[in-house]
Amino acid sequence: MYKINGTANINAIRAASEKGVKRFVYISAADFGLAKYLLSGYYEGKRAAETELLTRFAYGGIILRPGFIYGTRSVGNMKIPLGVFGSPMEMVLQQAKPLNQLPLVGPLFTPPVNVESVAKVAVRAATDPVFPPGIVDVHGIQRYSQQKSR
């Protein structure tokens, strides 16, 4: 998992930097606490890519850290409507933001986010020169997705 989430993304970040790209948006992942130990290669790779991005794109690197991304997922010919679960969970967990701060289990209360919201913020971050560089958590993704673009 480290190769795909770390090495491959680091290579893409380096190539973009070497070609003079000014802005780079990277979709990473929220930290789910205990889950990061089960998927250590995944999270280590994501964080290594983030470090590379912030080093090479100090003024134009944007990291989006969504949790569970929902939308309709296609698996072969079958469509799985993850929004059936994701949308209600998002509404409930948005109101439970203080629970995110609980030790060990807090990250499990990170609300899901719609794939359309993540896409909207990623495009805005890539094209809006005043979009601030840095890390945007799931609450920031939700907030930016509701704002009108300039």
From TrEMBL:
> What is the native source organism of this protein?
Brassica campestris
The molecule here is called NAD(P)-binding domain-containing protein
Top-level division of the source organism's lineage: Eukaryota
InterPro entries, alphabetically? ComplexI_NDUFA9_subunit, NAD(P)-bd_dom_sf
